[in-house]
Amino acid sequence: MSATNDAFLETFPVTLRDAATNWLPAPWNWLAQGLIAVVAVLAIFGSLFAILTLVERKALGRVQNRPGPNRTGLPYTARLPWLKFTEGKIFGLGQPMADGIKMLTKEDIVPREADQVLHFIAPVAMLAMSLMTFAVIPFGRNLVPVELDASVLYFFAAGAATELAVFMAGWGSRNKFALLAAMRALAQLISYELPLILSFVPVVMIAGSLSTVGIVAAQSSWHWGFIPHWYVLTPWGFAGFLIFMVSALAESNRSPFDLPEAESELIAGHLTEYSGFKYALFFMAEYLGMTALSGMAVTLFLGGWNAPLPFLQFIPSYVWFAVKLLTLLMGFIWIRATLPRLRMDQLMHLSWKFLVPLCLVNLANTTVWHLTASLPLAVRWLLCAVIIVAPFTLIGRSLTKGVAPRTYRYAE
Amino acid sequence: MSAPSENSPSAVRPPSSGADPSAFPGLTSAPGSNIRAVNDPFHGDLLEVSMGPHHPSTHGVFRMMVTLDGEVVVKLKPVFGYLHRNHEKLGENTTYLASMPYTDRLDYLCSMTNNWAYALAVEKLAGQPVPERAEYIRLILAELTRLLNHVCLAGFLLQDCGASGTPLMYAFREREKILDLFESLSGSRMMCNYQRFGGCRIDPSAEWLDRVRALVAGFPRFLDEFERLITGNEIMMARTPGVGCLSPKLAISAGITGPMLRAAGVDYDLRKVDGYGIYPRYKFRVPLGAHGDTYDRYMIRVLEMRESLGLLEQVMKDIPGGPIMDPKAKLRGLRPKAGEAYGRIEGPKGEIGFFLISDGSPNPYRYRVRPPSFVNLTVLEDLCLGHTIADAVIILGSIDIVLGEVDR
Amino acid sequence: MLGSGLLQGLAVTAKNLVGSFHDPARYTTVEYPEVKEQLPESFRNFPFLVTDNATDPMGALRCVACQICEKECPPQCIYIEKSKDKKPDATGKPQLYPAVFAIDTSVCMSCQICVEVCPFDAIKMDQEFEIATTDRFSALLLNREQLAKPNTYFHQIRPTEAAEVDGRLTAERKAAEEKAKAAAAAKAAAAAAPKPAASAVPTATPAATAPTAPKPAAAATPAVPTPEKPAP
Known about the structure:
The complex is a heterotrimer. Chain A is mostly helical. Chain A has one domain. Helix content of chain A is 64%, strand content 2%. Chain A contains 14 helices and 3 strands. In chain A, strands 1-2 form a two-stranded antiparallel sheet. Chain A is globular and about 65 Å long. Chain C contains 6 helices and 8 strands; from the N terminus they run αβαββββαββαβαα. In chain C, the strands form 3 sheets. In chain C, strands 6-1-8 form a 3-stranded mixed β-sheet.
């Protein structure tokens, strides 16, 4: 392990940071390091957002059997004369840039009746809150912007605040559709914060730590040398992971839970009265929130930056984190491409009648797992799987009672 | 034709107003019981929202003045007319022939059936026979139109449910194949203007008929996939059953026709009732729903597509040769003798009918369209009351309107 | 079990995602300006006027300004002014020709009724669809010079229909020739009549054609029939 710990690529980001800050007097060091972390997060995840918008549109396009945006090349100033292909369409890679320029140059329209302050603050607050959540995610070994003892709690506190920004936007716009969206956003926040938090409590119980770094460290070994210790590979962890991802979908207002934005119902929901760069900020915040929640899911359930197999450790830890993160993001896109939207009351039903009870069962399940540590792993695994699958089936059946596909009669 | 004991309206479930909460517990507990009395002292203000004419899911420029209690619709006033183009008056001021291309623009998804209904009315008025081959071609085109309309409806309904375009794109992919057929036959994808009084305009080649056969053979594969994507989907099963129940009684008294009526369980299909064209020669079944809700309306269309495919398979086997147009048919200067005629067919959306009064002049004295989606839309408020605004959107989607036809 | 339908749906979309990379039945997009689909022969867009001579389009228009299409056009987008003089048509009969023939393509709804009612096969539907302009008034109002396209172009876009039309026209021409011959023979037989001095040709020399139009030469039509004898 120590060999990989010291590998050049593994330590490269930290070395770089230290080289940049060590010349400062010691009292200033933490500030410079913090600023560098902020800049790095902004730069990396800002560009990830840009690429993600393109990737999502292209993936949606391919799922729908069309090419997606594939026309926009680079502007003349960004073309490289010695690289011929940069002059062409390069698969639409210039699209995010074009979108950004379009958003920046678009007229910013504020309704006269709107609450000017709230209308202005909402997108800023939303982006700020979703950026803040990145502070505690360990992106790699020793690569965590801020090490807090209760960083998981901090993450969800900051994440929940984005919904307040949605409410601000909806309320401040003085638009009926936006108002409906604001009501929906709040109801959704209250309903889904609970399963979101309950779903990772088992992880905290087993890892014995509220710190993201500690949780990742607790997952960094292997059974028999090849089954990673990731929590997603335990029954309770798998259930928790699924519940977490469902709640994350709702929390980041993604399809099928995009009720505040519900295009076919509320036009654009809380975004109805936003245009130009403020709209872009919302857009960015949505994607960053999605990225942050995926990063948290990776940290909590997928072993964080750990490699899946011991011999793969030569690949730097942040690469593993990135791979897992992108996989989850693709999952978000895939789900968006497939599923229709739930209705508001069904959203509540799903949370209160299904996810929350399952979370509670899962807590008990985790306890069983914890107390049966002496049993062989397979027995333990099966026992816990039954404990969570049985209620899943039962509650699921009661929820879908009477809605089996129907048979139809025919008149000749 | 049909067993009356099974299919008469009285045999169907007793009519219920709005949703029946007991029928769908759990995930789908319908919000019909959420209506509160307006004079409830704890009641806040009602919110009046104008959905449309600029709204993503009003299928054009339709407007719903919705009064909301929270998210529940307590009053809904449909507002039509934003796309009014004076269709009937135009028809009275032009010759019989010149109205034909305008019928394309009524329900611009199904121009072939509109053409047929209008041609039928004029043929009745003028006593014009239609050659055998033309009848076959008309049936093929009408059933292809049914396929393309229903597949679009399914796509749009899912779009209204919030699927990010995927089912719609699949539907459009298949629709495009049918439109390609229309284009290579009539010269235009949507504004076909193909039928004439006494036949059809262009004789389809054998190669074209082969392409239809290939399409009919390949369509079930798409339908199966589409149903795998949608029909068993839990979200769809949560969203649509019990939403917007239409009782047979209300359906009949409001003059609802088409799949919407049959979804309510009433066996009424003009292909069977009127037996126009060569429909009586072929065997096909008419699927009937039992609940009249959005899910039934969706499923009836899917099942109708399957029946249409079966019908097309039968018809494609024996297309006779011969002329496509009656040699005595008059294209220009048609002056039917004074009288009146009503021609109607079972369009994909319901009974599309044209009523013509002739006074012997080259123009009809009265030209009246009976648009199915306009009549079907009249029950929108009854369907939506007590449901949330999200349901109102999918109810509107399941009614299957085209504003070109509603507003004329 | 709850969720099986969702998983099925996800499987379908995954299949389409993969299929769109290798299955042409799924991925049907044609990237338009680079790749153009072959238009079906019957595709129709806006009308054009058939002329039998590419070098002298105005002199060989088949249109005889009968104004049937103008009357039958549902949106009334055709405007025709008859000429004052006559010139021989394809069969050699002296006919009027359109001094002004204008189609407002911003009104035209491409219904093809003008084509169907035209007894002279003079107006046909074009397949040119890239007609966007920056001027929505004069650029969309096409006059007869812009509308006239040679018969060879018609053959190019609709070989079957054009061949049929040509066959019909030749037959008509032949019939007219034979009729004329028969009439001439009859006349010659009846009484050794004087040689026909005046043919239809000189009468066709235009006096009041549109100024931009080149002077129609009488012998310009490719299959010039024998000039019809003036009626006795």
